[in-house]
Amino acid sequence: MTQETIFWGIHAGRNGEAEPLFEKENVIALGWKKIGNLSRLKTREEFKQQYEQVYPQAKAGAIPIHAGILYRFVYEMKNGDVVIFPRKLSREIWIGKVVGEYKYEPQYDYPHLRKVEWLKKYPRTRFSQGALYEIGSAMTFFQVKSFAEEFAAAIEQKEFISVVLEEEAIGLVADDIEQQSRDFVLKQINQKLKGHALAEFVAHLLNLMRYKTKVSEPGPDRGIDIVAYKDDLGVEPPVILVQVKSGEGEVDEATASELCGKVSEKDFGLFVSVGGFSKRARDFCFGKRNLKLIDGDELVGLVYKYYDRLDGKYKGIFPLRKVYIPETLSE
Length: 331
Known about the structure:
alpha+beta; ph1033 like fold; 7-stranded mixed sheet; 12 strands; elongated
């Protein structure tokens, strides 16, 4: 391998649909069949315009990402570059060398092709956890950077000792997965649960905690969005008065103080703000025994805690699945 050799990773469809094509024809390939022959497009801007024209329902943020993938596949990947292909069906890692320019073959469901020479095939256990994580990218086609040396050593059948200990790599992977998951849930809350919808969701969480709830009607509510109580009649203290704020902006001290003024000594105030609270607001509430603040991160924690019991419509907003991640033993 030369210093100029670039390492690429590629997936063969969500469930490995294109893997037989990769194996039988000695190629790597991309989908997006409706976009047609890409060789007539020359610039990134042309790729974006064509993608937007062919896929008018595509989200604005996805257009430059997908168009960029196609552009790199056609123009940035060069003959002699290395491609890493994590094969789903056999749980193997295939390593090959690009030996052909871009070709368009419309008879295939994955019609955008590059010829490759498959050099090595290894079980996944051959590679470090960090390397496996890098090639497990959510992207269809991407550049491999952090663990390129490990894959280069595998081509030459050499042992490779990473400067990052395996246990440290596992910890980094686990932390990254957890952070990405929390970011996803918080983003869904911001995008799908705004205003009154967030109040209804918080009330649902309180119901799962065995509270009875009454949610204010949409519109002006004088600051109280939910009233929660333990008894069926709602007359036994403490009653929980809940104010909910969606969006990314922090709650300031004045707004927190308004809620505090509505809470009697025998009741309890709860302020849920997805965007969090200013330092002055937190300082104001600190030490007040009957006032609690919940920010976006804590709200995500409640989503995790009660996820198995969430109503189906909320599980649809937060489509999550449980996975097991190795636990590191050292501090």
